[in-house]
């Protein structure tokens, strides 16, 4: 039933099957229970790694948002110009056989591939899975990011991801990558290299920093098309007044992410302190703005 609606052009493939003949009912029940109750979800980072294995098979203009984000995550982890070099945890490295390699490769902090990929998604797509599925309806040679423009019909400019148009044009992906590098290089100098800023190196902190990047880009930087590090530094310097060693910012949950983002945005003048939900955090921020 699940294969009825598959496009004809995509229906010619092998489907591996395991068939058991004449099994006693108790053994059937045992196999059923084993398959359905012992399975574990695939690690998100591992999933994204798998999505990226065939980067060389497809031309870059055909890459889905997921594939482009995986490519950027790999490049950020490997490139010397990247502040994330050796700090992005590759799922395969978590295998026990490679644990020694992992220890040597990692530095004092790491963030998962999934966290970086999903943060990059926020710059280029509103629904990465839907757009991947849309592109995969077509054979590789007929895929194009232009096919995704229909998902933007009726949207106002402010409702689109900040780098949506650049992604869809498939001509300036490097602009997206260099913006991330330039912004986080300033983050590294002003925060990551300083004591008392561990909260900004954790998953919640990095996700909050991506949210702040979006706010900065919408604050005229995107329109000016000036993505130099100096531009981001003028915003980030204002946030150095915040004490990120405070208990407000130590939670690893979405709440912690939100409070870090609030502190950064308020200190930069990109959000009114009155809109901060946490009363105690709001009181603290009033002392520095």
Cα radius of gyration in angstroms? 22 Å
How much β-strand is present in the residues? under 5%
Helicity level: 40-55%
Number of strands: 2
Termini separation comes to 60 Å
Shape, per Cα inertia axes: globular
Oligomer: single chain
* N-to-C SSE string, H for helix and E for strand: HHHEHEHHHHHHHH
Structural class: mainly alpha
For the sheet with most strands, the description reads: 2 strands, parallel
Mean pLDDT reading: 87
Number of helices: 12
Poorly predicted segments: 93-99
How would you write the strand order of the largest sheet? Answer: 1-2
Give the helix/strand layout:
Elements: H1 25-37, H2 44-51, H3 65-78, E1 88-89, H4 99-105, E2 111-112, H5 113-124, H6 128-135, H7 164-169, H8 173-192, H9 203-224, H10 229-236, H11 254-268, H12 279-286
Helix pairs in contact: 2-5, 3-5, 5-9, 8-10, 9-11
Written account of the structure:
This protein is an all-alpha fold. It is 49% helix and 1% strand. The chain is built from 12 helices and 2 strands, in the order H-H-H-E-H-E-H-H-H-H-H-H-H-H. The chain has helices spanning 25-37, 44-51, 65-78, 99-105, 113-124, 128-135, 164-169, 173-192, 203-224, 229-236, 254-268, 279-286; strands at 88-89, 111-112. It has a two-stranded parallel sheet with strand order 1-2. The longest helix has 22 residues, at 203-224. The protein is globular, with a radius of gyration of 22 Å. The N and C termini lie far apart (60 Å).
């Amino acid at each position: 039933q699940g294969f009825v609606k598959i496009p004809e052009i995509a229906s010619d493939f092998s489907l591996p099957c395991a068939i058991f003949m004449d099994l006693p009912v108790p053994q059937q029940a045992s196999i059923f229970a084993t398959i359905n109750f012992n399975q574990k979800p695939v690690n998100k980072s591992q999933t994204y790694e798998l999505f990226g294995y065939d980067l060389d098979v497809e031309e870059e203009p055909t890459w889905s948002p997921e594939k482009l984000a995986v490519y950027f995550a790999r490049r950020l982890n490997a490139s010397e110009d990247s502040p994330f070099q050796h700090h992005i945890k590759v799922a395969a490295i978590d295998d026990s056989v490679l644990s020694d390699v992992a220890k040597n490769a990692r530095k004092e902090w790491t963030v998962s591939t999934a966290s970086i990929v999903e943060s990059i998604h926020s710059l280029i797509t509103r629904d990465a899975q839907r757009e991947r599925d849309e592109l995969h309806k077509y054979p590789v040679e007929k895929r194009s990011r232009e096919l995704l423009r229909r998902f933007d019909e009726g949207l106002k400019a402010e409702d689109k991801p900040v780098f949506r148009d650049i992604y869809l044009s498939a001509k300036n992906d490097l602009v997206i990558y260099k913006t991330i590098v330039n912004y986080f290089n300033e983050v590294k100098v002003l925060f990551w290299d300083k004591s008392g800023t561990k909260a900004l190196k954790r998953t919640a902190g990095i996700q909050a920093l991506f949210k702040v990047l979006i706010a900065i880009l919408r604050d005229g930087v995107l329109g000016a098309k000036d993505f130099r590090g100096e531009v981001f530094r003028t915003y980030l310097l204002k946030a150095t007044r915040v004490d990120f060693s405070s208990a407000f910012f130590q939670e690893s949950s979405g709440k912690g992410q939100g409070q870090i983002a609030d502190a950064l945005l308020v200190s930069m003048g990109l959000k009114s302190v009155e809109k901060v939900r946490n009363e105690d955090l709001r009181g603290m921020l009033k002392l520095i703005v």
